[in-house]
Amino acid sequence: MENVLRPLIVVGGSVVLTLVVGWLADLLLRRADARHRETPLWGLLRRCRVPLQVVLCTALFRGSYTHTELEAIEDHETGIGRILSLVLIGASAWLVIRIATAVVEASYARYAASTRDPARVRRVRTQVTLIQRVVTAIVGVVAVAAMLLTFPAMRTVGTSMLASAGIIGIVAGVAAQSTLGNLFAGLQIAFGDMVRIGDTVVVDGEWGTVEEITLTFLAVRTWDERRITMPVSYFTSKPFENWSRGGVQMTGTVFFHLDHSAPVPAMRERLSDILRGCPAWDGRSWSLAVTDTTPSTVVVRAVVTAKDADDIWTVRCAVREEMIAWLYEHHPYALPSVATTAAVPPPDEARDRDRVRDRDRDGERGNPRTGRG
After folding, report:
1. What are the Cα distances from residue 359, in Å, to 60, 344, 363?
2. Does residue 198 carry a pLDDT above 60?
3. CATH number of the domain bearing residue 203
4. Residue 158: pLDDT above 70?
5. Is the distance from CB of 220 to CB of 209 less than 8 angstroms?
6. Same domain, 327 and 363
7. Which helix (H) or strand (E) holds 9?
């Protein structure tokens, strides 16, 4: 009977204690979250309940599995202990990452709620994202190293590796030159405020919004929902356009190629009416002027403003569409046309052509059959 009760007490007690501690921790976090609504930290820490229970349960098993006195466990005591140690290390790393993520996200949420400047919020978001990835990478590396050190053979290898760390460092630096370059470029972007998540950029002739920044690559979402993935070193070694840096307000232009008789003053009045009826226009400024001429057309440029890149695109399209429709309906002569009639000849050539035509006409009247008078 004791051979049955002892394992049940050890296993069951560990499971029950784990569930009770997890429930109590979740209860305390719920109460703290209800009491302190101004910070989301306590609500975010509730995500740590599962890794906490795994760590606690594994630690209890690791410390008490030898007391079960089961023959199968005694025969494989070393292997079971190593497996439990590996699970404990992995679960501990999981718990640390969850806690760090909760702290970082709570700090960002409080900063975003208290700051009205969108540019600063995007900068902090970029830095927070990269800090979170760095912490995850460091914890993961340490966890893997701790797992490897649980094997006696790896301890010997580790001693040899430490003895030749200088040579390995040089070789690794040469082999991973590109990766390390991207890593330092990612940190430079995060803390140098060169580009942030949510910025509108133009890279390689493509216009889009920065969607994700990691330690090695940067993803840009274009207007047609494509994703352009580029190494972060591109943004530290080549020029690019950042439309969101220094403010997101934009100025756009719309060009019209019209006939020389286009009613420019009336177009100015119409442009003012179009902009007043366009919600995307921010009301800062506008203008319309003839900027160039060609032998067949004039170039009329309309300048409009908007609060960001998306709205400036909307305003430009609205002005172009409504102005062309208005010209077609009320001033069709102002639209460019293609000449399809014969060119007017010089005066001397015209008189000679009229004489020949009159002579042929007189001859046909005199003799319809022969053409003679």
Report:
1. 123, 22, 6
2. yes
3. 2.30.30.60
4. no
5. yes
6. no
7. helix 2-35
Q: Give tens-digit pLDDT for 244-279.
A: 776 678 888 999 999 988 999 999 999 999 999 999
In DSSP terms, 228 is beta-bridged to: 220
Nearest-angstrom CA–CA distance, 230 and 240: 12
For residue 202, what are the β-bridge partners?
A: 207, 241
Give the C-alpha separation, 217 to 183, whole Å. 9
Contacts of residue 216, Cβ cutoff 8 Å, sequence gap at least 6: 179, 182, 183, 186, 231, 232
Domain match, 168 and 33 both: yes
Give all strands of the β-sheet with 298-306 in edge-to-edge order. Answer: 250-258, 298-306, 281-293
Same domain, 150 and 298: no
What are residue 292's DSSP bridge partners? 299
| Residue 277 Cα distances to 131, 234, 265, 315, 324, angstroms | 45, 42, 19, 10, 16
Lowest mean pLDDT among 209-218, 283-292, 319-328: 209-218
End-to-end CA distance of the chain: 146
List of residues 6+ apart from 65 with CB closer than 8 A: 10, 73, 80, 81, 84
**Is residue 206 located within the same domain as residue 310?**
no
The parent domain of residue 234 ranges over: 191-242
**Cβ contact 47:22 at 8 Å:** no
355 and 224 in one domain? no
Q: How many residues make up the chain in this entry?
A: 373
Q: How far is CA 143 from the centre of its chain?
A: 31
pTM value? Answer: 0.47
Identify which of 145, 147, 149 has the alpha carbon closest to the alpha carbon of residue 137: 145
- Domains in the chain: how many in total? 4
325-329, Cβ contacts within 8 angstroms, sequence gap of 24 or more: 326/270, 327/258, 327/262, 327/267
